[in-house]
Amino acid sequence: ARLVVLASGGGSNLAALLASHGDPAYGARVVGVVSDKPGAGALDLARQAGVPSVVVEPADFADRDAWNDGLAEAVEVFQPHYVVLAGFMRILAPSFLDRFAGRVVNTHPALLPSFPGAHGVRDALAYGVQVTGCTVHVVDHGVDTGPIIAQTAVPVLDGDDEETLHERIKVAERSLLVETVGRVAREGLRVDGRRVVVGG
Ligand code: GRF
Predict the structure, then answer these.
(1) Relative to the CA of 41, which ligand 1 atom is closest?
(2) ipTM
(3) Which residues does (6R)-10-formyltetrahydrofolate bind (predicted)?
């Protein structure tokens, strides 16, 4: 299966996918990386891996809708089977999601539905939970509200701050994302209401 990865940051999740996509048994290749940030580390990772990358910056467009259309065009060029959001910090418009209906997957560093949004790690820490984790889910028109495909629990340890906790979550998150994306790529994905069936 052909994957396009959207990333805004350092790209450690992208790095994990790139490390796996060489294995023919994995069943998925990252064919393109798209970022909203010209300096994103994810773009360097793509270049090092010989994967084409494109920057689609909001500043280059008249408004959010135009940017969303530009982003969809850039993604469409790669003809993806699935679009993976790996640390992509923008909300995608319904028009984008309808274009890739049911084929957009996101990873979130908390156990949804708890702590959605851009500060899931900080919010879990502030709340005082003893267990948090990460979630891979299908992207729907809400923010981090789509049907859940897979989750991993991660303990919060004494003395954790946002950074130490996020790093611990990311270790689990990278494995969960690679494993889940591989299964979806090999077996397909069917959404039935709130339930997701991989290999349906
Ligand atoms: C990941 O934890 C992702 O869930 C969150 O931001 C982080 C991105 O990390 N949205 P990286 O850029 O993949 O290293």
Answers:
(1) 12
(2) 0.97
(3) 64, 89-92, 106
